[in-house]
């Protein structure tokens, strides 16, 4: 099963998104947005960024 973005309204009335893996586990979450449309745009921005993102290992 593919992962999915969920857009939801939090207790403060702001809109947020979370990315869930195919097994339902939350693997990422976004900041608070004023509108549902802005939260959806945040999802789309993450999709675009992740498509070309590299993996970088940071040393402590």
From TrEMBL:
<dbReference type="InterPro" id="IPR051141">
    <property type="entry name" value="UPF0339_domain"/>
</dbReference>
<protein>
    <submittedName>
        <fullName>YegP family protein</fullName>
    </submittedName>
</protein>
<dbReference type="Pfam" id="PF07411">
    <property type="entry name" value="DUF1508"/>
</dbReference>
<dbReference type="InterPro" id="IPR010879">
    <property type="entry name" value="DUF1508"/>
</dbReference>
<dbReference type="InterPro" id="IPR036913">
    <property type="entry name" value="YegP-like_sf"/>
</dbReference>
<feature type="domain" description="DUF1508">
    <location>
        <begin position="10"/>
        <end position="57"/>
    </location>
</feature>
């Amino acid at each position: 099963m593919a992962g999915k973005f969920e857009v939801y309204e939090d207790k403060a009335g702001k809109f947020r998104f979370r990315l869930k893996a195919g097994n339902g586990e939350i693997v990422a979450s976004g900041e608070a947005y004023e509108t549902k449309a802005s939260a959806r745009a945040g999802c789309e921005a993450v999709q675009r960024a992740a498509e070309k993102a590299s993996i970088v290992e940071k040393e402590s």
